[in-house]
Design goal:
This protein is of the alpha/beta class. It has 13 helices and nine strands.
Length: 352
């Protein structure tokens, strides 16, 4: 590695050269790319642009600009740390993007990467009505355009994720269960600016990170952070129009075979028992106590989708589809949760 990096320092000239070199090195050293970026080109680009204080919206012509020796040193140092330490890039630079927004992250929280971002961008159309802050993920604008009024895009252009077409008024109260870094809660607040958002987590350390992000985005008066084991510390009178949850859902077999990069993430935020459903059973059982009559639950279970279907063979879960990839996320409304509550009660008691 030292020889190739020395050659790069002496021979490479432009930003484009450095991105190409980074892609090659990531592939040669079998670096796992799955935490914030999904391919080596995106990861390499992020590694090169970050030390240069450039973002994704930079003009492509800048890629042919020459690098100074100190800039090359900074880039190669970051690339080398990524390869040797196997730490995710977001932890190395304490930065991750979710739903077009920047978030501080470190090893106290998971790196944001949920497909739920698509639903938030479209304001959960067609379940809820949309306004000028929503836009179709089929015609996703650049980060600089994300807040521009989408007046020329009709609702027929919105991606059909599989949500029921109810066109209800926008949610006034939202709950983000297992908030971690607070990325979901803050993204929700940015799209539903008139809503009150509660964000809970059992982990004090994670809530410390979430507090940093809430303050950074100036949402102290809209996002309320609560230390709670799922619903335990929430007042019984709280009735939410929308509950979003991305709880721990990794099963024991997968946990035993995680790549080194994932071992830097907090284990308790990933592991959820033998089948990955320890928390999900309780969420399904308790959620209707906190949902309004038209309320909606969105729950991510990832690769534990199969296990959930096996646990409840008589229930037809509404598994959502995503334009940019992703699976293992279902939607269930208040009536469906109540209709199946006796089944959820059995599993919830077993996993206590």
């Amino acid at each position: 590695m030292n020889a190739s990096f020395g050659e790069a320092m002496n021979s490479l000239v432009s930003i484009r050269d450095m991105i190409r070199f980074a892609v090659t090195q990531l592939r040669i050293h079998d670096v796992v790319v799955a935490q914030g970026t999904t391919d080596e080109f995106a990861e390499a680009t992020a590694i090169v642009l970050h030390p240069l204080a450039l973002d994704w919206s930079a003009d492509e012509q800048i890629l042919d600009c020459r690098l100074t020796p100190s800039e090359k040193t900074d880039i190669l140092t970051l690339l080398q740390d990524r390869i040797i330490q196997r730490r995710p890039l977001s932890y190395l630079i304490n930065l991750a993007y979710f739903c077009d927004l920047p978030f501080y992250v470190d090893e106290r929280v998971l790196i944001p990467r949920s497909p739920i971002a698509e639903l938030i961008r479209q304001q959960f159309y067609p379940y809820f009505q949309t306004n000028e802050l929503s836009y179709s993920v089929l015609n996703q604008p650049s980060s600089q355009q994300a807040q521009i009024n989408q007046q020329n895009t009709g609702k027929q252009d919105f991606f059909a994720h599989g949500l029921e077409d109810k066109q209800l008024p926008q949610p006034e109260r939202i709950l983000d269960l297992c908030t971690g870094s607070g990325c979901l809660a803050i993204a929700l607040a940015s799209r539903f600016v008139d809503a009150s958002v509660d964000a809970t987590d059992i982990d004090k350390a994670a809530l410390e990170v979430a507090a940093v992000n809430v303050e950074h985005h100036g949402m102290e008066y809209q996002v309320n952070l609560i230390e709670s084991d799922l619903f335990d510390k929430l007042p019984a009178e709280n009735q939410y129009d929308l509950i979003i949850t991305n709880p721990p859902y990794v099963d024991a077999a997968t946990m035993a075979d995680l790549p080194p990069e994932f071992l830097h993430e907090p284990e308790h935020a990933l592991a959820a028992g033998q089948d990955g459903l320890d928390l999900v059973h309780h969420i399904l059982h308790d959620a209707p106590d906190y949902l309004s009559e038209n309320g909606l639950l969105i729950c991510e279970v990832g690769d534990s989708e199969w296990a959930l279907c096996q646990a409840y063979p008589d229930i037809e879960f509404n598994w959502l589809r995503f334009a940019r990839g992703g699976r293992g996320i279902f939607a269930m409304d208040y009536q469906q949760l109540m209709a199946n509550r006796s089944l959820f009660a059995v599993k919830a008691s077993v996993s206590l």
